[in-house]
Hints:
Elements: H1 2-6, H2 14-41, E1 45-46, E2 52-53, H3 60-87, H4 104-114
Antiparallel strand pairs: 1-2
Helix pairs in contact: 2-3
Amino acid sequence: xxxxxxxxxxxxxxxxxxxxxxxxxxxxxxxxxxxxxxxxxxxxxxxxxxxxxxxxxxxxxxxxxxxxxxxxxxxxxxxxxxxxxxxxxxxxxxxxxxxxxxxxxxxxxxxxxxxxxxxxxxxxxxxxxxxxxxxxxxxxxx
Length: 142
């Protein structure tokens, strides 16, 4: 899991990319749950329009949760996207194609989410489908 989410080296197939997306959804749900619990434990003031605000030292847990979630999402997202670009034979910088208005996001989605990686080894490593590495260690039965 550490290799999948926090290393920028190597290649991953589409299946591992989609597994990472499921992990991101799970982490988002967990952070939302913790935020909800924080709201119950550290109540703030609710304005007439329904927004809640917390000030002073009581805001530190909210800030820590938000900062941790943001750092995790940005770094893990860059790592997963770069490895998927590597599998397509492209540099990790290819993910910046999303910044092109209108077509950039569609181009990125087709390249990264839909198309198979380059068959065989490329300059970023061996084909992950030729020698799949398990995400979780497989216990041996003696």
